[in-house]
């Protein structure tokens, strides 16, 4: 989480983080509570070489729920667009 805050502080973008992260101190980072509260699934990245059984099972789960995950992501993007305007 500190890396995410450092990237935001370096003006590399914005981030949606849990509210508890606002307890970490970072100069130049402003925390804004999203209302209504917004819940998102995590984004996942992995190395494709030699996936473990756990990774394959998790990826299968993501694949089976891809439509619901995409719908939540679209909702988040539209909400962020409303905040910017």
Walkthrough of the structure:
- The chain has three helices and no strands.
- It has 85 residues and is an all-alpha fold.
- The radius of gyration is 16 Å and the shape is globular.
- The chain starts with a helix and ends with a helix.
Q: Secondary-structure map with pairings?
A:
Layout: H1 2-9, H2 53-64, H3 66-84
Short synopsis of the structure:
This protein has 85 residues and is mostly helical.
- Which percent bin holds the helix content? 40-55%
> If you average the pLDDT, what whole number results?
82
Major β-sheet profile: none
Structural class: mainly alpha
The parts where pLDDT drops under 50 for at least 5 residues are none
Radius of gyration: 16 Å
SSE order in H/E notation? HHH
Cα(first) to Cα(last) distance is: 27 Å
H/I helix tally: 3
Shape type: globular
Amount of beta strand: under 5%
How many E-type strands? 0
